[in-house]
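WP5 quarterly update. Target: Polyprenyl synthetase family protein. Source organism: Microcella pacifica. Length: 373 aa.
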Amino acid sequence: MPERLRLVDVVRDRLEQFLDERATHLGTIAEDLERFTDASRDLLSGGKRFRALFCYWGWHAVAGTVRPDDLLAELDEHPDLSSVVDAAAGLELFHAAALVHDDIMDSSDTRRGMPSAHRRFEAEHARRHWVGSASGYGTSSALLLGDLLLGWSDELLDSGLARLDDQDAARAARAEFQTMRTEVTVGQYLDILEEVAWRDAEDADMLPRAHRVLVYKSAKYSIEAPLALGALMAGGTLDQVTALRAFGLPLGVAFQLRDDLLGVFGDPEVTGKPAGDDLREGKRTVLIALARDALPGSAVRLIDELLGDPELTEHQIRTLQATIRDSGAVETVESIIARSVTEALAALESATISRSAHAELIGLSDLVTRRSH
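Structure tokens (predicted):
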């Protein structure tokens, strides 16, 4: 636990240093660009840093089998550590960019209890009585902020990879990042496609389609890819990387299924988002697919009629929540989460990785699947 907390601090400090450097550069262009760095800082000030943690422990899993674990107990004792911190911070910037774009596509008003980026820019436009559309300005500004964060994530990753002694490892890690970026993007598209084109699919196809979105939009990108990226930076063997993937993918599935439950039933005071936000956004998740499979036709029609209505009342939200609970889908999702964690831990047992990483990954598997936000 102390090392986990210290790693989060180190990544936070690196992000702050990087943003300070970029703020200085942007300041030479125009004072108005302070809005971008301020929004970036606010967005990156929160979060659980799961992707950074999995990147580090993926690296440690391999590096710790070459050097004794006790030499890696302190973060500053390995020559490649600063490269790993840059890669981990780059993943956090990539995640921030994805959140900015995701909030635009979902028309989300809040993120982590604060206005989402496009709402933040929109509110300033309205407050200052600028000309034109406040909504259009907010969306355009947030799109550019997300694009900027994407570019910055590449800068940080490349900075770290360039300093690795093993440039074959650097190239393998860069290829992993590129694959992750592609899969997240197309996964996001499949998600918004399901929201609008679900009527074109057969009922029997809705669950596998929802699972496909879960895997490519979130599961691989949240855990498997950061683990593999870190392991590849350390020069991990095919067996080591394959074992970490076999751990990371089912754990990522469990992670996203927990997120889907929180999106429907989470406490707004804890999640920082309105109750039932996924219901208003029309998310066709595994939870919804399972509920539709189990419910009678009248209840399915109720879900299909209400899901995706941005003007859902609190009463309608409660009705949908009760309908989903009554279907037994919540219990089914909980059982899938449990099975997925069991599958992940079984894969970890056969992995040839460092003792410290093995223990820490077990702890992280519990943290990411039992969370309340």
